[in-house]
């Protein structure tokens, strides 16, 4: 089974750092998913901060979504049955994240990306998921010394 991003997901992913694009263009081959958010400008960040439930704990420009290209991306597994994202199916988010992190680890090992990946369900990257104070299941961000592309 192979999947492809739709137009909206593709546009959102294009606002992200090349490493995030490389990772999720690889992930989409094995598991269908939707790019919920890439870069957030000031208005988008304020809206995410003010949303109930709150989508971001920080205000502009302190989110990793606020750089351009974005150093963070929010991605959700796509549910073919309901033809949408099933936000209540948190188990599936955990399953998805395990696959994403493995893809990222492999790409890093192969030298195809320059940064490690951190997931919002395991901030300290110890693979334990029950020691989080803030859980952000769709959130993935790059860690390390950031190398941004030049134009
Ligand atoms: Zn996020």
What does this entry look like structurally?
The chain has helices at residues 7-14, 18-30, 42-50, 90-109; strands at residues 33-37, 72-77, 116-119, 139-143. It is of the alpha+beta class and 151 residues long. It has one domain: Muramoyl-pentapeptide Carboxypeptidase, domain 2. The radius of gyration is 15 Å and the shape is globular. The chain starts with 6 loop residues before the first helix and ends in an 8-residue tail after the last strand. The model has no long low-confidence stretch (mean pLDDT 95).
CATH architectural name: 2-Layer Sandwich
- What portion of residues belong to β-strands? 5-15%
How many strands, which pairing sense, and closed or not: the largest β-sheet?
A: 4 strands, antiparallel
Instruction: Let me know the average pLDDT.
Output: 95
Number of strands: 4
């Amino acid at each position: 089974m192979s999947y492809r991003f739709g137009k909206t997901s593709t546009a959102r992913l294009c606002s992200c750092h090349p490493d995030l694009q490389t990772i999720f263009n690889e992930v989409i081959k094995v598991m269908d998913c939707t790019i919920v958010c890439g870069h957030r400008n000031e208005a988008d960040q304020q809206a995410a901060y003010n949303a109930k439930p709150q989508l971001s704990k920080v205000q502009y420009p302190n989110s990793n979504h606020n750089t351009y290209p974005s150093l963070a991306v929010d991605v959700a597994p796509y549910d073919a049955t309901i033809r949408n994202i099933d936000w209540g199916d948190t188990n599936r988010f955990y399953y998805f994240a395990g696959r994403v992190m493995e893809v990222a680890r492999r790409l890093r090992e192969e030298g195809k990306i320059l940064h490690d990946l951190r997931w919002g369900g395991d901030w300290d990257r110890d693979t334990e998921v029950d020691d989080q104070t803030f859980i952000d299941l769709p959130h993935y961000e790059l860690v390390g010394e950031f190398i941004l592309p030049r134009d």
